[in-house]
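Table S2 (text version). Query chain:
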Amino acid sequence: MTTPPPMISPELLERVVNASVDGIVVAEREGNEDILIYVNQGFEHLTGYSAEDILYRDCRFLQNGDNQQPGLDRLRKALAAGETCKEVIRNYRKDGSMFWNELSITPVHNDEDHLLYFIGIQKDVTDLVEAQQELEKLKSRLEND
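Corresponding structure-token output:
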């Protein structure tokens, strides 16, 4: 079975991906690491890192040593199994500031079902998480009064 030609040009696809305000990354498995081989402009804006800063590095540098998070365990298991996963984790920008990152990962397989890449979509959900935390504090105060 032949694959039909793409409906849009590679140039248009890159323009569309770069127009996203969400961070979009492509990672490739190399041993035990997931090496970033592509990041869009949304990722650069979200994290403060340029593509030149981070390409061919493992994605874990975004945790800045904050690697004891429950969501990370679930992400690691999904990556090892080649499965999709969505978690909210703490990540850190180039300037050291923390943000809550809703990270969705999706494996990409070839026609023979061999894992080739992972696509990661990153959303800054800091405002939402902080509002939820504040709501929990208020709820706790009301229950204890």
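Notes on Table S2: The longest helix spans residues 126-144. The first strand starts at residue 23 and ends at 30.
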